[in-house]
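Posting for a labmate who doesn't have an account.
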Amino acid sequence: MINVLLLWMLTAPHEFAHAWVATRLGDDTPRNDGRVTLNPLAHVDWIGTALLPFVTSLTGAGFLGWGRPVSTNPAKLRGGLNGLAAVALAGPASNVVMAVLLAALAMAVGRSAPGLSWFAQRGVLLSLYLALFNLLPVPPLDGSKLLLAARIPIALYREIARAGFLLLVVLMVATSLGSYLSLWSEQAAEAIFRALAVVI
């Protein structure tokens, strides 16, 4: 349940980052859809943000979750599909920023509020995990937009998208991908804490 709560908290800045970058690049679609906000309820996907994270956390099958995708119109984006790639990368980048901020919080309150520090440390790990997970080139994840930016045939992308949900479930349940993502997240978190220890 802690991971599900953290996912709700981390989804808002992730999806907001997509929406904000899209509007900066000239696409008013996210603003018209009410997505340029940090309100978590605007970004909830009830399957990806509630049901699947809860189930995969209980089963130990890695952690599978996402927010409601932000709609963009590449025709309105400066740079077209290259602009779409920038919008896609904004979400994982926001997760890295959040991981650094949460790590700084965890270190700052380590002695005065150990419970909060522990919660923030969990947030660091999950935020980095989400950054890596969302870079997987499988729809509806952010990494799939990089396939479009690489100019793969749109018909091929649509075929991948048709099986995207099932493919993600299989990858997380039947392979070691979730374990690898967790390991890489832990290694990245350790690097962030070491770097902050030098600065703070």
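Reply:
Got it, the structure tokens are right above this. DSSP finds nine helices and no strands in the chain.
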